[in-house]
Amino acid sequence: MKTRLYIYILCSILLLSTVISCAKYTDFVPKGQNLLDRVEDLDQLLNVQYSGSTFNMNRLSLIANDMYLLAYNVPNVISSNVVTMDKVLLTYDETADRAALTPTDGRYDGLYKNIAMVANIVLTNANSAKGDQKLLAQLKAEAYVLRAFMHFLLVNMYAKAYDPSTAATDGGIPYVKDINFEEVNTKNTVKEVYDNLLEDVETALALNTLPDHPKNSMRVGKGFAYAVKAKILLSMRNYSEALIATNEALKYNSTLEDHRPLLAEPVLEKRTLTRSGLKAPDNLFYAFSNAFDPSILTPTYEILSDYYEPGNIIKDRTNVYNYQFGFLYVGLQNIPAWIAQLYESNSAGLTVSDLVMMKSECLIRTNKIAEGMAEIEKIRVRRINPAVYVHLSASDEVQAMAHLKKVSRIEFLFTWRNFVNIKRWNSEGTYAETIRRTINGKTYTLSPNSPLWILPFPQSATQFNETLTQNY
User: Fold this and answer.
1) Which domains does the chain have, with CATH numbers?
2) Non-local CB neighbours of 232 within 8 Å, separated by 6+ positions
3) What's the rounded Cα separation, in Å, for the pair 357 and 360?
4) Which of 191, 110, 149, 103 is nearest to 457 (CA)?
5) What is the CA radius of gyration of the chain?
6) CB atoms < 10 A from the CB of 467, how many?
7) Parallel, antiparallel or unpaired: strands 283-285 and 337-338
8) How crowded is the C-beta side of 1, counted as CA atoms within 13 Å?
9) CA–CA dist 46, 36 (Å, integer)
10) For the purposes of burial, counting CB atoms within 10 Å of the CB of 263, is it exposed (0-12), middle (13-18) or buried (19 or more)?
């Protein structure tokens, strides 16, 4: 039994659950091709809710030391004689056999489901589908971008960060382009994966059919397409081209979330932090684990002391952080839990904040320090109490990058971005950092080149694919 068949089984379940209303069009031919032969059927297939375990990024936040465990007593987990993945990552234990602790992985399985049974089904059936050909061209473009984004997340979790000097030989992930489930998905190198990422996005943009603004933020528009392109190029250290793509994306959406209106309510207890998930104006593409993300998550001591700036509106001017619940959830003194159930964060997609921070870094990396710092201030001015807000300044790239890394860490707290960004910076000597986590007097250390930065492929995939060797 090959990996493609494994993906087929999983994805058949997804298709039945997400497209049940199109059941009469979902007969399978022997090689797994789906008889969705009308444009309307393919359009409906793209109406996926990107949520659940596929987009649960808490493990990445745990590795990056953004948060502790979700509602587990941290001291008890550490003192336990039972070796679990939670304990391994909490204590940065590089000696544990993480592959043996990973029989399955909802992120890995789910992302490939979206690739195989949404994006690739659309692309496979598009050329023969009957109906509005203009809409069909749009759906193809959406599918290309969707496929690229899902693969981008996968390669950044399960492989090394892109390094121009080693990418051609570094082990990557399978890049799945079809629905021939009878063949093995051979693992590509990191360079091959990134070449495919760019090819898919460029193909989508060349069709020139994506809407300026999609019907909702779980569909693909031009802003998201250019944002994905920018992410890819930034990861490849092509800062000048990434800047061009970022500026293109900003033409379609430049709205940043603003916390200053909270201060208009004079009573602190009545300042209610809200964000309307799918309808939030700063969304480029919306994906999440739970609708109440990031409620009940707990920031680490290091996040609270080293990264939050004085006057941060959420931390210092609202009751979002609840210390009583924090102790209840993780068993650590002076650690709060985020409690704001009306705030639906975009924990696994992309927002305008991604664009602004990418633009800042691209400018800084191309020696436009003042311009790069001006982009950082667009974030800070909306996050810090105006009564104490002071502009930051930098005289060189190193200083500017230090400011960017600090601001970025809070802006993308409890999302996948911090893990991917830190991992990317760790591949460069200048901006590599050692993470130190101190719990009850003991310090645990994560080095920039630790194998823990690369997630293990699950056994459910490796046992069916001999090419899927671990990348650490």
Assistant:
1) 39-73+105-261+346-463 (1.25.40.390)
2) 148, 152, 194, 197, 198, 201
3) 5
4) 103
5) 22
6) 13
7) unpaired
8) 10
9) 12
10) middle
Residues with Cβ within 8 Å of 274's Cβ and at least 6 positions away in sequence, in order, are: 340, 342, 343
Asked if 332 contacts 74 with a C-beta cutoff of 8 angstroms, the reply is: yes
Q: Is 32 left (phi over 0), alpha (psi -120 to 50) or beta?
A: left
CB 188 within 8 A of CB 174: yes
Global pTM? 0.93
What is the distance between the alpha carbons of residues 267 and 89, in angstroms, rounded to a whole number? 40
What amino acid occupies position 406?
K
Three-class secondary structure of residue 350 per DSSP:
strand
Do residues 234 and 404 touch, judged by C-beta distance below 8 A? Answer: no
Question: Do residues 384 and 257 make contact, with C-beta atoms less than 8 angstroms apart?
Answer: no
User: Which residues pair with residue 444 across a beta bridge?
Assistant: 437
DSSP H helix total and E strand total for the chain = 19, 8
Cis check: omega of the bond before 294, within 30 degrees of 0: yes
CA distance 240 to 197: 18
Tokens 């943009």 belong to 205
Q: What is the pLDDT along the chain (472 residues), one digit of tens a residue?
A: 344 434 443 444 344 344 333 333 233 344 445 578 999 999 999 999 999 999 999 999 999 999 999 999 999 999 999 999 999 999 999 999 999 999 999 999 999 999 999 999 999 999 999 999 999 999 999 999 999 999 999 999 999 999 999 999 999 999 999 998 778 899 999 999 999 999 999 999 999 999 999 999 999 999 999 999 999 999 999 999 999 999 999 999 999 999 999 999 999 999 999 999 999 999 999 999 998 999 999 999 999 999 999 999 999 999 999 999 999 999 999 999 999 999 999 999 999 999 999 999 999 999 999 999 999 999 999 999 999 999 999 999 999 999 999 999 999 999 999 999 999 999 998 999 999 999 999 999 999 999 999 999 999 999 999 999 999 9
User: Residue 30 is encoded by which pair of tokens?
Assistant: 């022997």
Which of 228, 361, 358 has the alpha carbon at shortest distance from 284? 228
